[in-house]
């Protein structure tokens, strides 16, 4: 298996934009939020479990995410029960990705990387991060999410400062140029260390 790079960041910190930059560098990226989207789509493996937990959040088309979000806001005690349904299915999808990909570096894009201990499966972790003011402005600009909804999700995430303290690298996401430069630097640093490692092996 190649070098497994974990990518994380609190909600609205620019994690998906950073993931796209790693893709632009030619790396395979596994996206936990996208895996949840597939599991929630019509016929997806999480639909029946969610229907049992929150019947009003499921329609013919699969899981209705805004309805599920409202149910979680009304009753946050649903979070651990929902996660017990969804996270094992997400882990299976991640394992398939890792077994399938053979690039020298692969990226796991996971919002709850530290919270779920997935950092222990990574060779190193990078965190996408911006100021709290930038983060809140981005969240409030998202359709359908108000301050209470954003704060509820944030309250269930490790604080940004703790993520920053743990990660090997930080990608600053105030600007696209700054983030892209950091992404390129990280890829080249990892490739450099892999090259040095291979040379030592010979
Ligand atoms: C809460 C839900 C309905 C919100 O859906 P929505 O389409 O609005 O947002 P989306 O799924 O794109 O997630 C956006 C961000 O919310 C945050 N978030 C999502 N789930 C969680 C959670 N369980 N705990 C903390 N933060 C979360 C993450 O930062 C994520 O990047 C949805 O995210 C969900 O069902 N989450 C439970 C599954 C889960 O834990 N997913 C996280 C990845 S494994
Ligand atoms: N490096 C950057 N420079 C400028 N704007 C950025 C940068 N990264 C992200 N943004 C902007 O911030 C917003 C959120 O970005 P993105 O969707 O990547 O965040 P996210 O952390 O993946 O969000 P979520 O956790 O909600 O899925 C978007 O409007 C995006 O255009």
Automatic annotation (TrEMBL):
Keywords tagged on the record: ATP-binding, Coenzyme A biosynthesis, Cytoplasm, Kinase, Nucleotide-binding, Transferase
Pfam families given in the database record: CoaE
ATP-binding found in the keyword field: yes
Taxon lineage: Bacteria, Pseudomonadati, Pseudomonadota, Alphaproteobacteria, Rhodobacterales
Chief place of localization: cytoplasm
Localization per Swiss-Prot or TrEMBL: Cytoplasm
Catalytic activity, EC: 2.7.1.24
Binding site for ATP: 12-17
GO cellular component terms attached to this protein's record: cytoplasm
Keyword set includes Metal-binding: no
The protein's name in its UniProt record: Dephospho-CoA kinase
GO molecular function, one term: dephospho-CoA kinase activity
Organism annotation: Rubellimicrobium rubrum
Domain of life: Bacteria
Pathway where it operates: Cofactor biosynthesis; coenzyme A biosynthesis; CoA from (R)-pantothenate: step 5/5
SUPFAM superfamilies (UniProt xref): P-loop containing nucleoside triphosphate hydrolases
General function of this protein: Catalyzes the phosphorylation of the 3'-hydroxyl group of dephosphocoenzyme A to form coenzyme A.
Biological process annotations from GO: coenzyme A biosynthetic process
